[in-house]
């Protein structure tokens, strides 16, 4: 669902081309990080080699919190339609991070027994 992140350049910037460039860079990173999350879910080998923190629930939780912080719009901008979608995606990522945190706690409690 990161492919839904189509944003217009902010109106407060002076140069429209640099604002558009920033938006495209941001979209590139959203797609890249989204593919990284999917790759971690399917246990691809390169994830284990280069992004080993994504093998563990705690690492995935922290990464999802990071992604949610990048996506979430300012509170004052939430009611615009495109920002509402971003807010929903950010909340979904936070929910997934919460599930991973619970999985981490369960995993640690099983190791203690």
Please outline the helices and strands.
Layout: H1 16-41, H2 45-50, H3 57-71, H4 81-112
Helix pairs in contact: 3-4
Describe this protein's structure.
The chain has 113 residues and is mainly alpha-helical. Helices cover 70% and strands 0% of the residues. The longest helix is centred in the last third of the chain and has 32 residues. It is flat.
Short note summarizing the structure:
With 113 residues, the protein is mainly alpha-helical.
Class of secondary structure makeup: mainly alpha
Task: Report the major sheet.
Answer: none
Tally the helices. Answer: 4
Tally of strands = 0
Strand percentage, roughly?
A: under 5%
Unreliably modeled segments: none
Helix content: 55-70%
Order of secondary-structure elements: HHHH
Distance between the termini: 39 Å
| Overall 3D form | flat
Radius of gyration: 17 Å
What oligomeric arrangement do these chains adopt? single chain
Mean pLDDT: 78
Descriptive tags:
flat, 4 helices, mainly alpha, about 0% strand, about 110 residues
